[in-house]
Write a structure and sequence with these properties.
about 650 residues; mainly alpha; 5-stranded mixed β-sheet; 19 helices
């Protein structure tokens, strides 16, 4: 209806400073209802002070009929009878019936309450200054109806939104002053303004700025070409806009503080919720995961599987630890800018969160260290087992050396293997002790969980592995002792063969020399000291030496057969050799051993009656080892004592004692 421009306030004033209300009638039928509504709206714009000065109404009837003009004039009596001071009816060029029109308005003058005059457009300046008239009445006042309408819509929108926003902000701010329970209810209801305060304030500032600028530009008069608005001067919305802006800024400032408090409470509640989520998970599922992971495995593969499972557990914990770091930063930020009433609560949350996270992290680290130590322990045990297997394989292999040097090299390699096994066992004991220390110093999990039962199984396993490796090493050492003695005897055998070969060549060379000597003596017909008995003596000595060497060789062969049979029993079943369960195998060893002992009862001596200490020590060493492998030691001592006592040869007592030692 306003766009139809049925009536408007141009902003012009009469000589009494009353506002000018213009009603431009047109050739089309004018709706009285719409006109009445338009007048009601326009008359509601000015202030009461402005209304008190009265209105001058210009009814432009130049394009309308007399009866419509009359209806409009009469309607003014019902709409604004008290406010109307003068009604100027602008006559058309075709003059109405003067008698009729004059008589009609004159007759109704007292009843109307205001004066009505008929005037042509060019005579209107007698009652109103030209500068207060618009151009259609020959005046210079600039008025843009669409511009006014747009600004009026902006003003009314701002007024409506700001008024509604003020009411809402007032309610919100008043609720925040209530009790804590009311604050909680307010927070729960999540009351928010219907309009954005920033947008409404910006609209108000733009409107106020434009009103102030238009008034400044238009205050010099109507000749400046700037459109004059009815909201300027007495119709000013500027004071109202300023008042609304001031009230809105005040309530909005309070609302911002309310929002800040709400945000702080919301952030605090959110932090509390997240903290409890982290704490509940770490003390619940996280702790339960660690409680069920206490084994250390029985092999490298098993320990690696446990480490992989632990890495998965750590990965799940890492996600919650990341939340902990974020929460800790948020709490630190709130502590640096928080109120006194929130400091204790925030510090309590931070302490609780830190305690739980650090405790869980220490448990994860401890579990990782235990698994790492267990992995190293199993690796060392496997390495030692492989070394023992290699050593056992070397001991089980047949010895077929080509010469004494090869035997010495093999013996050296055997000693190196044994030394390496000893080093591996020492390393295993050290790593096992580290693991046992970790088990013994391990504390219970949170909330009183006793881990003694789980640790006992692990500790028993560690002791079992170390004891098993110790027993395997001991068995290998026993077999190494047997192999060492056998190889030393084989070295002696090769040495005897070498010495025999050397003596044989010496004997042949001496015999040739003696034969040459005999031939020379015969040819020279002379006698020498050695010509008669040297050669026979050499033959006797050689015969005695060969007999003794053969005896020595036979004894060494018997010793080799004995050790071979003994190693076979030790290799196949070392326990059965001690318990004498494998009767046939043991009888074979016993038979060979007895035959060797019988042979050893006859000492190897030279014809001059002196005993070779080297052979004697060899016999005693060999006999002692044989008796250590069987149960003939007492019988051997009896035979040796009888033999030593019954010999007619002169044995030196000190030599016997040293040999027995």
């Amino acid at each position: 209806m306003l766009k139809k421009k049925l009536a408007f306030l141009s902003g012009g004033k009469d000589r009494r400073s009353g506002l000018i209300l213009t009603i431009p009638l047109c050739t089309e039928q004018t709706s009285m209802e719409e006109l009445s509504a338009t007048l009601d709206y326009l008359l509601g714009i000015p202030s009461e002070k402005c209304k008190a000065r009265g209105f001058t109404v210009i009814v432009d009837g130049r394009k309308s009929q007399w009866n419509i003009v009359k209806t409009v004039v009469l309607m003014l009596q019902n709409v604004i009878p008290a406010e109307v001071s003068l009604v100027c009816v602008v006559k058309p060029d075709e003059f109405w019936d003067k008698k009729v029109t004059h008589f009609c308005f004159w007759k109704e003058k007292d009843r109307l309450g205001f004066e009505v005059i008929l005037v042509s457009a060019n005579k209107l300046t007698r009652y109103i200054e030209p500068c207060q008239l618009t151009d259609e009445f020959g005046g210079s006042l600039v008025y843009d109806h669409l511009d006014w309408l747009n600004k009026r819509l902006v003003f009314e929108k701002f007024t409506k939104e700001s008024t509604s926003l003020l009411d809402e902000l007032t309610v919100i701010n008043e609720n925040e002053k209530g009790s804590q329970a009311e604050k909680d209810r307010s927070s729960e209801s999540n009351i928010l303004p219907s309009f954005d305060p920033e947008t409404v304030l910006q609209t108000g500032h733009e409107l106020l700025s434009e009103l102030q600028q238009r008034r400044f530009n238009g205050s010099e008069g109507g000749g400046g070409g700037t459109a004059w608005s009815p909201m300027d001067d007495e119709l000013l919305a500027q004071p109202q806009v300023m008042k609304l802006l001031d009230s809105l800024r005040e309530q909005y400032t309070k609302y911002q503080e309310v929002c800040r408090q709400r945000s702080k409470r919301s952030q605090l509640e959110e932090i509390q919720t997240k903290v409890m989520q982290v704490v509940n998970w770490l003390e619940g599922p996280g702790t339960e995961q660690l409680r069920t992971q206490w084994g250390i495995g029985d092999s490298i593969r098993a320990s690696q599987a446990l480490q992989q499972k632990h890495e998965e557990i750590e990965s799940q914990h890492s996600e919650w630890f990341a939340v902990y770091v974020e929460l800790n930063q948020q709490i630190a930020a709130l502590l640096s800018a928080g109120d006194e009433e929130d400091l204790m609560e925030l510090k309590g949350l931070q302490q609780q969160l830190s305690d739980v996270c650090y405790r869980q992290a220490s448990q994860l680290e401890f579990r990782q260290n235990v698994l790492q130590s267990a992995h190293e322990f199993h690796m060392t045990a496997q390495d030692m087992s492989q070394q023992l297997d290699g050593l056992l394989g070397m001991l089980c292999a047949d010895v077929a050396p080509a010469d004494g040097a090869a035997i010495q090299q093999t013996l050296k390699h055997l000693e190196e293997k044994l030394k390496s096994v000893e080093g591996a066992l020492q390393s295993l004991r050290e790593k096992g002790q580290v693991l046992l220390d970790q088990m013994s110093t391990q504390t219970s999990f949170s909330y009183g969980k006793d881990v003694g039962i789980e640790n006992k199984e692990n500790i028993d396993h560690i002791h079992s592995v170390m004891e098993d490796m110790q027993l395997r090493k001991q068995r290998c050492e026993d077999m190494v002792d047997v192999r060492r003695l056998k190889m030393l005897q084989m070295v002696q055998l090769f040495k005897c063969e070498e010495d025999a070969s050397q003596v044989r060549s010496t004997y042949d060379y001496g015999r040739q020399l003696l034969q040459a000597t005999v031939v020379l003596c015969q040819s020279l017909r002379c006698t020498t000291r050695s010509s008669g008995d040297t050669l026979p003596r050499l033959n006797r000595v050689w015969k005695q030496f060969t007999v003794t060497s053969d005896e020595r060789q036979h004894r060494l062969e018997m010793a080799s057969a004995f050790h071979t049979a003994a190693e076979k029993i030790l290799r196949e079943s070392p326990e059965l050799a001690e318990l004498m369960v494998d009767v046939e195998a043991y009888e074979e060893v016993e038979t060979v051993g007895k035959g060797l002992l019988d042979r050893l009862t006859v000492p190897v001596i030279f014809p001059d009656g002196s005993a070779t200490l080297y052979f004697l020590l060899t016999i005693i060493s060999l006999s002692t080892h044989i008796l250590a492998c069987s149960s003939f030691f007492n019988l051997f001592l009896m035979f040796m004592s009888f033999n030593l006592i019954g010999q007619s040869v002169d044995w030196k007592q000190s030599g016997i004692e040293r040999g027995l030692d």
